[in-house]
Every structure is written in C-alpha cells, then in structure tokens.
Design brief:
This protein is α/β, with parallel strands linked by helices. The protein is built from eleven helices and 15 strands. The radius of gyration is 20 Å and the shape is globular. The N and C termini lie far apart (52 Å).
Length: 350
C-alpha cells in the first residue's frame, strides 16, 4: 500500500471558507493525484456534494459526526481503503490526501485519530482558514479558534474580498498572535491563495531559532490569553525525563495546551530530536542530522522548546516536573498589544 507524500488536515471555524479554498485548489491541480476526504456533521454532507462536482478527484465522505471523536475508526478505514483501491487500480499513488474537517473539529484530536496509521509514514500538515470578515464573538468560539490556529503549519486568510481594510488588519493581528508558529497566506487571488496554502514549501521545516529573542523577532506573538513560553538548557537530557515532563505538561494543562515544538539534545543520541505536539497529541520524535545546515553544529548547541498555551501562568509551567537539566531558562514571550513586546525570564535553578 503506497502512502501519499503528505496528508493535509484542513481545519477552520464554521463558515471560514475551507470548502471554497479546497475547490479553488482542485480547479488548478488536475493531475488526478490529490485525494479528498470530507467530514461534515449531519445526514447530508453538503461540503462533499460541493466538492464532488470536480470530476476526476478521488473522494470519500464521512457524515453523522466529528472526525476527531465519533468517527475515529471510520477515518482510519477510509484512508486505508482509498490507498488500497488506488493500488489495485494500477494508477500512480496519491501525491497528497486532504481531510476537510468539520468546523467543530480540533486538529489535535484529529491527529490523535491518525496515530494508528503511523506505519504509513505520511508527512502530516495542518492548514487552517480564518475569515477576515467574521471576528470571534464569544468564549466558545475563541477556545476552538485558538486550538485551530495554534496547531496550524499554514494559516490562510479568507473572505478578503468582502472584508474592509480594518477587518483585514485585525484578522492579521489575531492570527499572528494565536498562530505564532504558522506561515501566513494572505492572497486576494483565489487560485494563488489555494496553491500557496497547500504548497509544502510554505510550511517550511519544523526547526527553531537559537534563542527566544530570535523567535520573537519573527513576528508579533501577543494576545492577552495566549502565552508563548521558551525553555532553553545546555546539557543533554535523558529521554525518560523529557518524555515524563511532556506527558505531565499535557496532563496538567489539558485543553489549554495548544502547541509544543522544539529541537533537543538527548543523552546517547548523536542527532537532534525534533519534538512536535498539537494539543495533547505528540508526533513520534524525529531525528534531525547534526550536519543539517538549518540546525547548526551539535557542539555546544542548546536545547530549545517552545510551548504555546491558553490562560496559563508562568508558575504553572515552572512547577511541572520532573525538572529539566540545570541550569534551565524559562522565558515567557508576550506582546501586551499595541506596545513593544516584552520577554519575562525566570531561572528555574542556577
């Protein structure tokens, strides 16, 4: 069974333009090697019906539930069945599969549902849409949108044609604050926007800068309810200790944990380990070659871990055990809004 080169989770709040973005992509990608799975809530899969008008696109639909909870097994079965059918047909394998999620889905839970397919070794990316003309209106919307935006590799601004300039400015500021690690696509041309949204090069390699200051320099990362924490230490860490800390982090913060990303030096490993988490789901750590020019030299290289969380205090992160190698610097990077960003530092131990 030949797995596709990549699997794209297309997320976004209700009415944020996911189906339109996907349709625009299919209108310009006609090689027959893109497969689509549409998850809609309800007896009639409206999104699936809209996509189905594009001839020659292998497509499956999942209805009557949300793929991140009640349809977990259906999603796994559907992916495997589509790959097997493709293999038996003798056609070239898929270049990509795109799962268009329900607007109520949290990407972290969707990624957990894909964990049983780890043997396929698909490269998984999250693309999230945000409608410029529809600002978040209440607590429930904020929590879900924060989870969707923080998990994204690529955030796509949509409905720019019906939004005024002020709405676009506000939307840009919000998505940069909530999706601090994502690449932002803000294109008015629908076909250019779609191609950039699904271009793997747009997501970049999941590496981290060498310091919190460098991370901050990449762009504004501020929202009153979203904190970005940076941990940095210089000694190799034992893998059991780091794994236990990550497990305790996810268990303590629960749905307040939005994103974890880092490159760490582990005892007994000659390569850097890439740590990535979306919500409470963590990818299998991946070895990054020490001679990779994007990572620099292993000699004297510190470990860096970025944690993005909602409604948290630095003391909560500081008190999670077991303690990392010492000395360890914990930084909270926050922009208080219209002013310049500030960085608060706390020494866990000298």
């Amino acid at each position: 069974m030949e797995a596709p080169a990549e699997f794209v989770v297309l997320s976004g709040f209700l009415g944020s333009g996911k189906t339109t973005l996907l349709g625009d992509l299919l209108a310009v990608v006609d090689d027959g090697r893109t497969a689509v799975i549409v998850n809609d809530v309800g007896q009639v899969n409206i999104d699936g019906a809209l996509i189905a008008v594009t001839a020659g696109v292998p497509m499956a639909t999942l209805s009557n539930g949300c793929v991140c909870c009640s349809l977990t097994n259906d999603l796994q079965y559907t992916i495997e069945a589509m790959l097997e059918t493709r293999r038996l047909s003798g056609a070239p394998g898929f270049r990509r599969m795109i799962l268009e999620c329900s607007g109520l889905s949290e990407p972290g839970a969707v990624l957990r549902s894909l964990s049983e397919l780890a043997h396929l070794r698909m490269r998984v990316r999250v693309v999230t849409t945000y409608a410029c003309d529809r600002p978040l209106s209440d607590q429930e919307e904020f929590g879900l949108a924060a989870a969707q935006l923080a998990s994204a590799h690529v955030i796509v601004l949509t409905r720019m044609d019906v939004a005024d300039s002020q709405q676009i400015v506000q939307a840009t500021a919000l998505v940069r604050a909530l999706g601090a690690m994502a690449t932002l696509v803000a294109e008015r041309d629908p076909h250019v926007r779609a191609q950039r949204a699904f271009d793997e090069a747009e997501s970049g390699e999941a590496t981290l800068p060498g310091s919190p200051a460098a991370f901050l320099a990449e762009g504004p990362v501020g929202h009153p309810r979203i904190n970005v924490y940076a941990l940095q230490w210089n000694s190799p860490v034992a893998w059991p200790l780091l794994a236990a800390w990550l497990e305790n982090l996810a268990g303590y913060l629960e749905d307040r944990l939005l994103r974890v990303k880092g490159l760490v030096v582990v005892e007994g490993c000659e390569e850097l380990l890439l740590i990535q988490g979306v919500g409470q789901h963590f990818d299998t750590p991946r070895r990054i070659g020490a001679d990779d020019p994007s990572t620099g030299s292993m000699g004297g290289r510190p470990s860096n871990l970025i944690v993005i969380a909602r409604d948290t205090e630095m003391t909560e992160i500081r008190d999670i055990g077991p303690a990392p190698p010492m000395p360890c610097r914990l930084s909270m990077i926050r922009s208080p809004g219209a002013g310049s960003a500030r960085v608060r530092l706390a020494r866990l131990q000298e």
